[in-house]
């Protein structure tokens, strides 16, 4: 079994491990104006590079329409919009 010849100091161990950290994801700002012939209106949101944004647009093309949030009425309330609705 391998046994270390000498003990390594804390600073040497940490210097060796400093490159083992996880990298942050590469993010870019969605502008859309950098491509000729495409829609110049950008969303201005941060997204991962080479991935779709939250609105379904990538490089000026729409790939899907995001689902809309549906507000369902609460069975207990008269007006149907949660626990703050007025009861008779």
Describe it.
With 88 residues, the chain is low in regular secondary structure. It has a domain at 25-67. It is built from one helix and four strands, in the order αββββ. A two-stranded antiparallel ribbon has the order 1-2. It has a two-stranded antiparallel sheet with strand order 3-4. The mean pLDDT is 75.
Please count the helical segments. Answer: 1
| H/E series | HEEEE
As residue ranges, the low-confidence spans are none
- What is the gyration radius calculated from CA atoms? 26 Å
Helix residue percentage: under 10%
How do the strands of the widest beta sheet line up side by side?
Answer: 1-2
Arithmetic mean pLDDT: 75
Terminus-to-terminus distance: 80 Å
Tertiary shape: elongated
Structural class: little secondary structure
Largest sheet: 2 strands, antiparallel
Q: How many strands appear in the DSSP assignment?
A: 4
Beta-strand residue fraction: 5-15%
GO molecular function: structural constituent of ribosome
Family: Belongs to the bacterial ribosomal protein bL32 family.
Biased composition (Basic and acidic residues): 36-46
Biased composition (Basic residues): 7-20
Task: Throw out a few tags for this protein.
little secondary structure, 88 residues, structural constituent of ribosome
């Amino acid at each position: 079994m391998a046994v270390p010849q000498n003990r390594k100091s804390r600073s040497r161990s940490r210097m060796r491990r400093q490159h083992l950290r996880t990298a942050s994801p590469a993010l870019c700002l969605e502008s859309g104006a950098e491509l000729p012939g495409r829609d110049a209106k950008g969303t201005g949101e941060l997204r991962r590079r080479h991935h779709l944004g939250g609105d379904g647009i990538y490089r000026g093309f729409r790939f899907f329409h995001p689902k809309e949030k549906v507000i369902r009425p609460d069975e207990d309330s008269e007006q149907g919009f949660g626990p703050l609705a007025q009861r008779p």
